[in-house]
Amino acid sequence: MYAVKRNFTFFERLFIWRRMNFSEQKFILMISFVVGVLTAFAGLFLKWLIHQIQYLLTYRFDATASNALYLVYPVIGIFLTGLFVRYVVKDDISHGVTKILFAIARKQSKIKAHNTWSSVIASAITIGFGGSVGAEAPIVLTGSAIGSNLGRLFRINSKTLMLLVGCGAAGAVAGIFKAPIAGLVFTLEVLMIDLTMGALLPLLISCVTAAGVTFAVSGTNTIFEFHLQNGFAVDKIPAYILLGIFCGLVSLYFTRTMNSLEDIFRKYSNPYVKLLIGGATLSILIYLFPSLYGEGYDLINLLLNGNSAKDWDTAMDSSLFYGHGNLLLLYLALVLIFKVFASTATNGGGGCGGIFAPSLFLGCISGFIFARLWNFYRCLGIYLPERNFAMIGMAGLMSGVMHAPLTGIFLIAELTGGYQLFMPLMIVSVCAYLTIISFEPHSIYSMRLAKRGQLLTHHKDRAILTLMSLDSVIEKYDEYLYPDMDLSELVKTISASRRDVFPVVDRQHRLVGIIYLDDVRPIMFRQELYHRFQIGQLMKEPVARLNIDDSMDVVLLTFDKTQAWTLPVVDTEGTFMGFIRKSHVLTLYRKTLADLSDD
User: Fold this and answer.
1) Interatomic CA distance for residues 158 and 591, integer angstroms
2) CA–CA separation, 200 vs 479, rounded Å?
3) Cα(297)–Cα(274) distance, integer angstroms
4) Scanning 135, 174, 231, 288, which has its CA 20 to 30 A from the CA of 343?
5) Of 152-161, 179-188, 244-253, 475-484, which has the strongest mean pLDDT?
6) Phi/psi of residue 531, each to 5°?
7) Phi, psi (5° rounding) for residue 2?
8) Reduced to 3 states, what is the DSSP secondary structure of residue 566?
9) How confident is the model over 292-304, as pLDDT tens digits?
C-alpha cells in the first residue's frame, strides 16, 4: 500500500506555516499591525474619492446665488448608490456600527467579506454627490470587516476574532481622524469590548499604525484647524454646564427624530418610493441650506476659525440667505433643526453614510449658537469665545448621540489640538451624557439591538447570555409521535432511543403535547394495554413553549418561572423545532463565561 500524498491549498499551507513559526500571541500582534495599515489606506482612499467627486461637481458654483444643481446631485447620488447596493452588493450595508455590534453579539464576530470594500464605494458616491451623512461609520465597518476576514482566513477562534473586529474599528477611527487615543476609547465605549491586558496591546498597535500611516501620507496637521482664543477660566464653568445640558437636549432631539423618520421609511418596501421621498427631501433642504451638502466640514472649519462677522457670514454662501448677515443665527438654527431630516433622507432614500460627521457638525453649530446668544444677552457679565464653544460643542454632541463621553473628549482634543481646553471638554461631555441618559438609556447605535435583546454590554451576565445562541443548545429530533399512535408504537420508539422526553405533533409537525418517559414507565411493559391506550391520552401539555427567536435571557427566565428542566422550542407557526435542557444551557453558560474571562 502506498500512502496517498495530499495536495494542500495555498491557504492551508499558509495556516500550517503560521502555526509552525509564530505563537498565537505574536501572530495576533502581527495581524493587528496589518489591520492598522489596511484600514488607514481604506480611510485615505475614501476621503480622496469623496473630495474628487465633490470638487468635480461643485468647483464652478457661484457663491453669490443659489445653485439649481443642488436639486439634482443628491438624487443622482442616492440613485446610483441604491443601484450599486441592490445589483452589485446585494446586501444591506446601512447602519455600519450597528452591524458591527450585531456581528459581535450574534454572529461570532463574522462580518461578510464584501464589507471590506462595499461601504467605501457606496458612501463615496453618496457623500460626493451631496448626501448629508458622514464617511466615518462606513470606514469603521470596513475596518472591522478587514479584521474579521483576516482572522477567519487564519482560522482564529471567535474570542480573538472579536478582538480583531475591535482592532479594525479602532484603526479606522484612529486613521480617518488622526486620533489614536480616540480610536482605542471608541472601541471600548461604543463597541463595548472589555479591556484586558491581552486586548490592550493589539488595539494600541492598530490605532498607532493607522494614525502613523495617515500622518505619513497626509501630514501631521490636525483635521480641523483651531486657534485658541482664551484658556480655561473658572468663571465660565456655569456656561460649560449649561452648554452640556443644551448639547444633551440637541442629542435627544437628533436621536428621537432620526428614529421616527427611519420608521417612516421602513413602511415602504419599494426602493423607488424611498428614493422619491428621500431624494426630494434632501435636494430641497440642500438647495435652501447648502451647508447640508456632504459632511459639512467646511462649515465646521469656518466656525472654528472665523475672526469677524464677515468671515462667519460666508456660511450662507450659495444660499437664499446670502448677503443677509443679520440672519446668520436664524440660518444656523434652521440648519441645526433640519440636519437630522437631511441625514435620515440620505440613508432612508438608499444612500450610505454614518452619523459621526453629523454629530460633529451639529455640535459645532450648537456651541456657536449658544455662545453667540450668551454674549448677545451678556449673561452673568461673562464673554464666551465663540470659536472655543463651537469646538467644545462638538464633544458634547458626540458624547450625547453616541453615549460615549470619553470618545467625545479625546476625539475633539485630537481633531483640533485643543488640549488646553481639556477641562471644559470634560465638563460639557459629562453633562451632555448625563442629560441624554435621563431620557434614552442606549445610544443611537445600540438601541435597535437593545430592543431585541441582542446587545453585548459590559454587564458580565448579560454579555454572556447575548453571546450564547439558542441554536447551540437546542436538541434536534428526527423521531416524532402522533396522537393517534398506540402504546405499542410508543414503546418501540422508546426502546430505539436514549431520550427521556418525546414530542407529539400533528401531521404538519405542529407541537400538540409531550410524552415523558417517567409518566409511561408503569404501563410500558404491560402488553395487554398496548392497543388500549393512544398517545393522545398519555401526552401532557408543556408547561411553557420557547420560541425559536427568543433570546437566552428569555430562555433562562422561562426555566426559572416554570421550574422545568426540559422545554420545547417552536417557530412562529407552532412547528416543533426541538427541546432545550436546562443542564445544557448552564453548561454552555459556564463555558462562555470561561472563554470571556480568559486573558
Assistant:
1) 13
2) 50
3) 27
4) 174
5) 244-253
6) -105, 10
7) -105, 140
8) strand
9) 998 999 999 999 9
For residue 481, the cross-strand partners are: 504
CA dist 275 → 123, 214, 270, 281, 320 (Å)? 16, 35, 9, 10, 26
Average pLDDT for 77-87? 93
User: In what order do the strands lie in the sheet containing 576-581?
Assistant: 474-475, 576-581, 566-570, 546-547
Query: What is the helix (H) or strand (E) element at residue 580, kind and residue range?
Result: strand 576-581
**Residue 96, amino acid:** G
| Strand bridging mode 511-516 / 501-505 | antiparallel
Report the C-alpha gap between 80 and 346 in whole angstroms: 12
Contact 90, 114 (CB under 8 A): no
Task: Answer yes or no: is pLDDT of 462 > 60.
Answer: no
| Nearest of 282, 413, 296 to residue 54 by alpha carbon | 296
Report residue 431 as a C-alpha cell.
Answer: 453633562
Long-range pairs, 227-233, Cβ under 8 A, ≥24: 227/305, 227/387, 228/388, 228/418, 228/420, 228/421, 229/385, 229/387, 229/388, 230/385, 230/388, 231/420, 231/421, 232/420, 232/421, 232/422, 232/423, 232/424
Please give the full DSSP string across 389-438, using - where no structure is assigned: HHHHHHHHHHHHHHT-HHHHHHHHHHHH--GGGHHHHHHHHHHHHHHHHT
3-state SS, residue 268: coil
The span from the CA of 89 to the CA of 114, in Å, is 7
CA dist list (Å): 5 to 2, 8, 550:
9, 9, 48
First-to-last C-alpha distance (Å) of the chain: 47
Non-local CB neighbours of 373 within 8 Å, separated by 6+ positions: 329
The DSSP 8-state label assigned to residue 555 in this structure reads: H
Query: How crowded is residue 32: how many other Cβ atoms within 10 Å of its Cβ?
Result: 27
Decide: pTM greater than 0.90.
Answer: no
Q: Where are any strands of DSSP class E within 40-187?
A: none
Average pLDDT over residues 53-72: 83
150 with 202: CB under 8 angstroms?
no
Helix, strand or coil, per DSSP, at residue 534: strand
Name the phi and psi angles at 417, rounded to 5. 75, 20
Can you tell me the mean pLDDT for 127-151? 92
CA-based nearest residue to 426, from 397, 402, 392: 392
CA 194 vs. chain centroid, Å, equals: 17
Tell me phi and psi for residue 134, to 5 degrees.
Answer: -110, 160
Beta bridge partner(s), residue 567: 580
